[in-house]
Design brief:
Blueprint (H helix, E strand, L loop, with lengths): L1 E5 L12 H8 L4 E5 L2 H7 L5 E4 L8 H6 L5 E4 L5 H5 L8 E3 L6 H16 L2 H9 L17 E5 L3 H12 L3 E6 L10 E4 L3 H5 L4 E4 L13 H6 L4 E5 L8 H9 L3 E6 L19 E3 L10 H18 L13
Parallel strand pairs: 1-2, 1-3, 3-4, 4-5, 6-7, 6-9, 7-8, 9-10, 10-11, 11-12
Length: 323
């Protein structure tokens, strides 16, 4: 059994696949072939049953996958798979798995950082520092106790976020399609009642995948349903949010602010008014980044290799046709 690893260090996503990772994979298969990009892979003539790559952003290895005679399984170590959904890879009769769970701790920690910075008025104090002014913010810093943090798209990332949030005193509610009890959540609400749920949240964190059903899910009506003064965080995909509606909600004062790790378009246009809004904090799609991410992804992948070889059920399966 052969694996193709396709990833170039220093690309769109600053993750590092090392020789140690490849050596770990070699313990589970016959051969591992490592290429920086699809052109290099195509030029080699190598074929394999499995490809391990990053397909969360950019262009997935569509040309190689379509011409492969042996490919049975594509594993992406991203959680998001929207580039795969848009590609012809979605038409292939192959197994697709993603990196669900590997980003949970880093994204949850980042989300909590956004919340704490807003609660404790870090932005105001940073501005004072920039201006060499020694004074407290005009509004006293607050705490999480008595506040409700809501997560739209309460999956594995949401659970890590909820764990951190409960640790500092937040009440946590989640919104998802299938309502089931979740650890660290005080309440889970159906997406059919999203407007009611949004009206309960002091902090709104969006983590839902981008699909045709969720494009501009957070629109003018959704912002209007949010509690006045809510703080909005997008760690999903930019396309889940109607950017013009977000700008309007910020301008009107209905939202107290926003932390945006993903935007539409991405990268954000230089002339976007979001850059200059004092109550907006922008990060360049980095909240998942961690030096531990690839270690976790390779560990997951190798567990699934053993299941694949044994014909046992695999985890993190993705149905590209029904997203």
């Amino acid at each position: 059994m052969d694996i193709v690893v396709m990833y170039k260090e220093g690309g769109v996503v600053p993750l590092v696949v090392t020789q140690a990772h490849v050596d770990t994979m070699k313990k589970h298969v016959d051969n591992v072939h490592w290429f920086a990009n699809e052109d290099e892979l195509l030029a080699s003539g190598v074929d394999a049953e499995i490809i391990f790559c990053f397909a969360g952003v950019g262009t997935p290895p569509e040309r190689w996958c379509l011409q492969s005679k042996r490919l049975k399984w594509l594993n992406t170590f991203s959680a998001g798979v929207d580039p795969l959904v848009r590609s012809k890879i979605s038409d292939l009769p192959i197994i697709v798995t993603n990196g669900k769970g590997v980003h949970s701790r880093s994204m949850g920690l980042t989300a909590l950082g956004y919340c704490v910075a807003h609660l404790r008025k870090f932005w105001d104090m940073k501005e004072n520092q920039r201006n060499r002014v020694w004074k407290k913010p005009p509004v006293m810093g607050d705490e999480a106790v008595g506040k409700t943090l809501g997560i739209v798209g309460a999956g594995s990332i949401g659970q890590a976020t909820a764990e951190f949030a409960k640790g500092i005193g937040f009440k946590v509610i989640g919104v998802k399609r299938k309502v089931t009890p979740l650890e660290y959540f005080d309440e889970v609400i159906s997406d059919k009642e999203m407007d009611r749920a949004l009206g309960m949240m002091d902090f709104v964190i969006v983590l839902t995948p981008l699909t045709e059903q969720t494009r501009h899910l957070i629109n003018a009506d959704r912002f209007a349903a949010m509690k006045k003064g809510a703080y909005f965080i997008n760690q999903a995909r930019g396309g889940v949010v109607d950017t013009n509606a977000l700008i309007d909600a910020l301008h009107s004062g209905h939202l107290s602010g926003a932390a945006l790790d993903t935007v539409e378009p991405e990268p954000l246009n230089e002339d976007s008014p979001l850059w200059d809004m004092p109550n907006v904090f922008i990060t360049p799609h980095y909240s998942a980044d961690s030096p531990l991410l690839v270690d976790r992804a390779v560990e997951q992948f190798c567990q699934n290799i053993e299941s694949f070889k044994a014909g046992k059920p695999m985890f993190n399966l993705v149905d590209l046709k029904n997203m």
